[in-house]
What does this fold into?
Amino acid sequence: MSPENRAAYWRANLRLLLACMLVWFTCSYGFGILLVDQLNAIRIGGFRLGFWFAQQGSIYIFILLIFFYAWRMNHLDQKFDVHED
Amino acid sequence: MTLQALTYLVVGGSFVLYIVIAIWSRAHNTGDFYIAGKTVSPLANGMATAADWMSAASFISMAGLIAFQGYDGSVYLMGWTGGYVLLALFLAPYLRKFGKFTVPEFIAERYYSKTARIVAVICLIFVSFTYVAGQMRGVGIVFSRFLEVDVEVGLIVGMAIVFFYAVLGGMKGITYTQVAQYCVLIFAYTVPAIFIALQITGNAIPQLAFGSEVSGSGVGLLDKLDEIVTSLGFSQYTDGSKSTIDVFCITLALMVGTAGLPHIIVRFFTVPKVRDARASAGYALFFIAILYTTAPAVGAMARYNLLNTVQPGPVGAADGNLLIDSRPDWMRNWERTGLVRIDDRNGDGRIQYYEDKNVAFQGTADSYGWQGNELTVDRDIMVLANPEIAGLPNWVIALVAAGAIAAALSTAAGLLLVISASIRRAGSPRLWHLLLVSRRHRCSR
It folds into this structure.
């Protein structure tokens, strides 16, 4: 890989990580902790929304996040031709 | 068949299964031994990682912690799964790409330093042994309650089983045993949860039952729980009592700690390709989440069942509390282990269970004639006692015992392997040589 390509690959990598971390922070620390009282005013079924995020929602989002990351990274590896197969 | 015989049968059967798998998949060379010859499929590796990652703490203790802490217990749910995300995004793929067997090896190469490697090995040994000790305590508790043998005996039997299949099978044997252990533990965790969810709400899916109405009452489970706990002076279930900054910092600490678990990082070296490592991280969290999203439901339902047992009538009424003489068998059984204690402080022959440390509730308690909390339930027994509290059949109780042991053994095996791999591959003679010789040099100088 050329140095420019390597730098571009790394930049794309970091951008993806940053986006994932933003989602990660928002759904756990944001919705589950910092905004929990405000969100608890909203009810979904028998759940207060903030409580639901803290005990259920954040975990579901974490799973999606890892699969999303895997999908985007594999795509990136293909694009920069550093995939293994 | 008695519960004890049934438990022996189920737990013994699971041990036989693990040993058979270990023999069938035993290691043939070094690659097999440390990283399972890089041949494990991402799905199987995901299951094994989930079993490796979910320890006795996740299986036995977590739902109990949540049951008694309510919202505050969320720190474990978000902290441990969120930390796993950090591990999967920031550590695992890069270490995997680097192509080393163990984390200390990576550190040595990356920082061009043997000292750094020794520091890493020492940290790893310290962390892993502390963690193994916790697992073995979990095994000991299960043995002492269900098989009525001493904690020490349980511990030795547990260690012997792990030793047997770890030495025989190495990483390959451990990986396939962990796949079986995952199946045992997740079945053992969800079956009672589904039964209890059906009993309380009529909804079979614990994750949904948790937010459903209590059958025949028209009131949601969580609302009902909030109402009962506050009427007994506890803090509101869905709100908790910790400050936001506490919850924030504890979650952060748990996340950072989880991201560094050495026996989990090494799991990503066992699959053939980097893209498999990434997929396997996702599968693992999916398998983990089956237990982690069930746990808060189990916690809420266990708390609800416990409160209903102790407080069958209205709060404050003279006959609102459970008569000590008519207490259920599960209380008597657990009293023998010392993990449930009853102390009739006001001598009325009934059990009063409330928050006696809440100053604001003191006046109300006095007016009821209550003279202090009379029931102490160890949080660690909630998951194990849950099927008994809900009156489920004996085979479910035996299954939970086997599941708890599976959770503890799978983690212990993973940890022991990573300890041995790091010491051996750090060139153990070299490591100790360096440590001892450098000391001696210093002394002679």
